[in-house]
Amino acid sequence: MATQFANKLEYPGAAFQERMAIRARHRIRLCSGLLCDTANTIASLSMLGWFRRSFLDIIDIRPSYRVLDVCADTNAVGIGLLERAPDIKVVAGDRSSDMLKVGSRRATDRGFSIESVISDVHGLLFRSKIAAQ
Length: 133
Fold this sequence. Notes:
alpha/beta, Rossmann fold, 3-stranded parallel β-sheet, 6 helices, 3 strands
C-alpha cells in the first residue's frame, strides 16, 4: 500500500509534460495578454483583485530584494511588489511570450523595469541560495 502511494507522488514524466504542453497551447490561445486578466477575473468570481492584494499584503518585501515571479502572466504581482518597494529587482517567468510582452509593457508604462524570461516552472534554471544557508 505504501509503495502504491509513493509511486503516485513521483514526477509523472512524459505524459504529464505532454498534457501540460497542450494546456499551455490552449491557455495561450484563450488567454493572451489583456484577455487573460478578464478571464481570470471572471474565473475568480471577481475576487482576483482581493486575492492579489491579500497575497501582496503577506509578503515581507525589503529594499534590494530580488524576486522571481513564476507563472507571471501579465506581471500584476511583480508590478504590485514594485509599487511597494521600487528598488527591488523582479524577474518574471512565464511560458507565454505574449503574456510577458503585455506585462513588460504594463511595467514600463508605470515606470518600472521587470526582466522577462520565457520559462516553464517545471524546469527552472534559477538556483536558490536558501538551501545553501
